[in-house]
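Entry 14. Structure prediction run on the chain below.
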Amino acid sequence: MTTADSPGEQRQSLRFLWLYALAVAGGAVSYVPFLTLLLPVRATDIAGDGNIDLLAYVAFVGAIAASLSNIAFGWASDRTRSRRPWILAGLLLSCTLLVSVKEADSPVKLIGLIVAWQVGLNMMLGPLAAWAGDVVPDRQKGFLGGLLAFAPALGAASGAVVTIPGLAGPDERVIVVAALVAAMVLPAVLFGRPVSMPHLTQPTEMGASEQPHHGRSAVARMWLARLLVQIAEAALFAYLLIWFTSIDESFSDNDTARIFALVLGLSVPLALLAGRWSDRHGRPILPLAIGAGIGALGLLIMAASQDLVIAIAGYVVFGLSTSVFLALHSSQTLRVLPKPETRGRDLGIFNLTNTVPSLIMPWLTLAMVPLFGFGGLFVLLSALAAIATLLLISMPRTN
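Output returned:
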């Protein structure tokens, strides 16, 4: 093997990285506009004033289904040593079930369809996440983290598009979402053709992995820090529209979608800059700690807000910082979970930081909001983000 061909010198093609980022964005489009905008509307149509309770139950059972299926299909793709067939099957199943949600006319039917949809969605998302670990070397993971910031941004942008007044009715919006998802995921799966990186997929006992093993303490801190930040994210993900309308009844779902799109769009260049900086200076954790800390400040601004302008400003601070945090955290996860032969399963376990918050958040909301209002909830969430900051900033330096 020549020096130019050695594992340390290999680079993945930019063409694949961009197509992969588009596919991950397609995964975000499959759930962001649905869970933040379309599902609350559907829940209100079905349950009326009981919409908050119904959304809490939907989030709870959906998170259980997502957690288990993400681990299961990640493991299955490990065992078959193939990611793309699982991604394609999950794409077909999740899009079909997404379109079927408009047929739900009772709380029980809605919950059942959401559970099935989460299984299909994670059949796609689990193997898709593991695919990056198979083909993207460490030296490009900072750039990869920046590219992953496009996912929530395009997810929010799709929400703004599908809720444009007059574009599509409530039942047709899910069809538009499904079509967008297919158009974004299929190019990478069918035409991506990544440069082969066999050293990234050989079992660790063969000494082939380029990635160093990190201590359990570092992995645990990373896991817990993301969990705490994601609890705050999950609360706003589900209830932001309801909170805005409690401040100003004229605030619409399209207004919320446009704010999501603006915040997450601005987070993309910030994530790219932060990712490049962390690569060059060998400080992969510092941008994460800063992001969690600024997110805690944004939540305090939201808690103190008395009018819509301050409320939006607080969310902008929170949204920008935590979006950068989550994008870069995803790429750093590929460093701390380096075992190639169980990468899909291990990422599924780490994915619990994305789904477990949906099990915790509804009960926090139901316990806090009736007694202390959304302001009290935001103070509690700010404290959780501050703890995440302390966990990360006290970690030993690691490259």
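The chain has 13 helices and no strands.
Filed with the rest of this week's runs.
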